[in-house]
Amino acid sequence: MAVGVTAAVCFALTIFALQTRWDFTILGGALLVGAIVLMVFGLVAIFIPGKTITLVYASLAALLFSLYLVFDTQIMLGGSHQYAISPEEYIFATLTLYLDIVNIFINILTILRFIRD
């Protein structure tokens, strides 16, 4: 079930990143701050065990990595966006998209595990 949800989310976000007029490439700093806040929240969550905090953490992480997927897709495309990578960096672009998708999958798997219990 998590594979299907991840595939649907990634497909929808990729289509959104391809057709939208909004430029998500300018949000790099905000996404970095979000990742740091999520890391600190994760460290706090280690000392406060429970289903609720794990579910909140996984939900926030899935949202953050969904935004990263849109960000990385637009950076990979280039075009009229503010920031872009060169075509020679296709391996880096592929790895970043792969890591975004894997992180989305792991967090959706965590969410579905706690919803099922």
From TrEMBL:
Coiled coil: none annotated. Pfam families: Bax1-I. Keywords: Membrane, Transmembrane, Transmembrane helix. InterPro entries: Bax_inhibitor_1-related. It is found in: Membrane. The keyword DNA-binding does not apply. The keyword Cell membrane does not apply. The chain crosses the membrane at residues 27-48, 55-71, 91-115. It is a multi-pass membrane protein. Belongs to the BI1 family. This is Uncharacterized protein.
